[in-house]
Amino acid sequence: MGTPSARLIAAAQAAPEVMDDEGRSLALRRLTALDKLRLFKAAGPHLAQNQMWLGMAVLAASVAAIDGVPVPLPGNEGQIEALVARLGDAGIAAVAAALGDGTESIDPATAKN
């Protein structure tokens, strides 16, 4: 099966890709039940109940690679926020549109709990 790094790279290479408005190629992954469980744990009990925050976190965690560079699943609140910041509005909107979950119309600047 290979090393964990080899599996991560292979998964990123096999993932569907979308381009964002900044011209970045974003490889996507569908989160498994275990991935979601780990994301809830990383968010903590308070943020895991905040649907708007968690929605953005799920979109960010669905990115497997940016411009061919693998992106690991975030493991804590700081990593989630860093990934959201790295993706920015353009990346989050592209992921939302590609996954078809309807959150692409959410403006993070005006979103409320």
Which keywords apply here?
113 residues; disordered C terminus; 53% helix; globular
Topology:
Blueprint: H1 4-14, E1 17-19, E2 25-28, H2 33-47, H3 51-61, E3 63-66, E4 69-70, H4 77-99
Structural commentary:
The protein has helices at residues 4-14, 33-47, 51-61, 77-99; strands at 17-19, 25-28, 63-66, 69-70. The protein has 113 residues and is an alpha+beta fold. Strand 3 (63-66) and strand 4 form a beta hairpin. Mean pLDDT is 83; it is low at 102-113.
In oligomeric terms, what are we looking at?
single chain
Tell me the distance between the termini.
42 Å
As for the number of domains, it is 1
- Poorly predicted regions are 102-113
Write down how many β-strands occur, each being a DSSP E stretch of 2 or more residues: 4
Quickly count the helices: 4
